Amino acid sequence: MDHIVFLIDEHSDLEAWMVRLEKPKIKRTPIRHQQEPFTCSAMTFRNPDCV
Fold first, then answer.
1. Does the reported pTM lie above 0.90?
2. Are β-strands 40-42 and 32-34 bridged in parallel, bridged antiparallel, or unpaired?
């Protein structure tokens, strides 16, 4: 599995990206929050050009 991770400073930046990905209708997951094994929030999406 290939993936890339972007670190952001504020949760509001993640929310802004969520909105930005909606405009070109890029499918993505909702923002998920986790506490274990470390605290983070994430949203995942696939490259729309992947076959």
1. no
2. antiparallel
